[in-house]
Amino acid sequence: MRIGLLTEGGYPYVDGEGGVWCDRLVRGLGRHEFDVYAFSRSEAQEQAGWVPLPPQVGRVRTAALWGTEDDGVVHGRRARRRFSELYGELAAVLCAGADANASGAPHAPDDRPATSGAHRASPEADRFATALHGLAALARDEGGLQGALRSETAVRALERACRAPGALSAAREARVPDLLAVAAHLERALRPLSLDWYEEDGLGAVDVCHATAGGVTALPGLLAHHFSGIPLLVTEYGVRLRTHYLTRPDAPPSVRSLLAAFHGRLAAEIYHRAEFVTPGNTHARRWQERCGADRAKLRTVYPGMDPAPFAEAGESPGSADPHTLVWAGRVDPAKDLVSLLHAFARVREEEPKTRLRIIGGPSDPEGAAYLGHCRALAAQLFPDEADGPHSVGDNPVSFEEFGGAGPATSADAHARGAVTVLSSVVEGFPVGLVEAMLCGRATVSTDVGAVVEVIGGTGLVVPPRNPRALAEACVSLLRDPERRARLGAAARARALELFTVDQNVSAFHGLYLEIVARTPVRRPLLDATGDPLPFATPAEAHVPGHWTDRPSRALPPWALDTSIAATETAR
After folding, report:
1. Per-residue pLDDT reduced to its tens digit, 393-422
2. pLDDT band at residue 429 under the 50/70/90 scheme
3. What is the per-residue pLDDT across 91-125, written as a single tens digit (0 to 9) for each?
């Protein structure tokens, strides 16, 4: 089987997110062929190079979502008119609010998550899809789309849509700087429409398009489905629409409204056209349903981790320090280490021997400032034990980083404590929590994101921003070693059952086969008169492995042509 893997800002680049998961998927399915179509996010990412690729990766094609390069084509009068009509239609849908919620996605009348068929009940959704595919066809027929998206024609079309009767009140309030900001964002988001990836020797030749994220990442798969009927599989471990909301809190209301409408419409169209959508947890699944995803298409596939590095800690739970709490991860305000420190002050009142190890570092200036604030707070909460405001001394709270004097790996970090604590107020899929479970450690976590789904009764869960509840849960486990051991063993068993690489790869292998089995043949073989040949594509043409390899010399001459034909058809 030939898979078109669509990525953004990750695989095959060395510096990017999601690269480890994609690499494990490709290497785990060695009998399939993979063509990688990757978007880069910066020049530095491209200069960092690629990770070593396995032999089953047949080709890699890349495109940049940064910079301002275009094909140099200038539209004539007819093409300009066609672009103005299509872009104006797209903008009109974004400005219309009659049947849309704040995200731009349709919803049920009582504001519950939209279910099967909600997306296509909206005529605005059909208008959006028609305009999107029309722009893609214009780019394929005439070229010059990137230049047109940056032109004054685009800004004026957007302005007319915002000033039209019935437009959203937030859109009507848009000023020139707001219109320019929205047009610039749409130009970057619509760049995949201009690519030459959709020909018969590109995405048109694969059996399945697998988008490793939604939004812009899945847009090439949406176009391959439109132009060539290629089935689309979409995987979202972090819902892009949710990310859009979290990363643009300070934008003007008109900009937020228009971009939310665009991303909501795009997400709904992608979910509608996909054969399957695979969220990484129930939290992401609820978001997808809210954006119009059909529940019948949703298949939860948990992220997979390699359990081998955690085996030693998991099989020797007695090596942990019974008086140590461990927090490990990336330091930023969403992790709410302030509440953790206040909770630890209460823990020390009940269990004076307890120590807290905070292991990890910041990834940006905001995180660095937050880490400094937490260090100062720790010195303030335990003044009798700290040597000074800039020294940890004998402070029961230690701030460490991986490597150097700190633990070398996350497995080492969790192995050193009796209880692992998660204090976040915002969390998607808690990878650090799964690592602690693989180490066989009891956990205390806040009820955010997919935490409850991951824990599944093998740890204690408390409300977020509640230091008292967090402290009481920690104390209860510190005082009961038998309960700690029992919860840790159950947590490790659960993690080995649900959150391993083998489980993840096996799930996608099954989805690939199911998609191909239900997808009709796109290129039927014809006889001399031009009529389709019945049974020209044998069933085994879609079976992975040696069934579709070229035959050995042991095959008789009469079987040679049939086997080769089956191979070429499968490809």
Report:
1. 578 999 999 877 778 788 999 988 999 999
2. confident
3. 999 998 544 443 444 443 333 333 444 445 578 88
Q: Which fold has domain 308-499?
A: Rossmann fold (3.40.50)
b vs e for 4-25, b when ≥16 Cβ sit within 10 Å of the residue's Cβ?
bbbbbbbbbbebbbbbbbbbbb
Which pair of tokens denotes residue 242? 């949710």
Measured CA to CA, the distance from residue 76 to residue 91 in angstroms comes to: 22
Strand partners, 60: 36
Strand segments (E) across 450-514: 460-462
Is the Cα dihedral 81, 82, 87, 92 positive or negative?
positive
What is the edge-to-edge ordering of all strands in the sheet holding 460-462?
Answer: 397-400, 355-359, 321-328, 417-422, 442-446, 460-462
Phi and psi, residue 480, nearest 5°: -130, 85
Q: Copy the structure tokens of residue 53.
A: 């690729």
3-state DSSP assignment of residue 241: helix
Contact 395, 386 (CB under 8 A): yes
DSSP 142-181: H--HHHHHTSHHHHHHHHHHHHSTTB-HHHHT--HHHHHH
Task: Dump strand ranges (E) for 273-404.
Answer: 276-279, 321-328, 355-359, 397-400
Determine the longest span between alpha carbons in the chain, in angstroms. 94
Q: Is the CA virtual torsion 416, 421, 426, 429 positive or negative?
A: positive
Relative to beta strand 460-462, strand 57-64 is unpaired
Residues in the chain: 571
- Alpha helices by DSSP H, listed for 200-335, are 219-228, 240-247, 253-273, 282-290, 311-314
Average pLDDT rounded to a whole number, residues 257-274: 92
Closest CA to 215 of 11, 6, 485: 6
- Per-residue tokens: 7: 């990525």
- Please state the pTM of the whole predicted model: 0.82
- Report the alpha-carbon distance of residue 524 to residue 537 in Å, rounded: 8
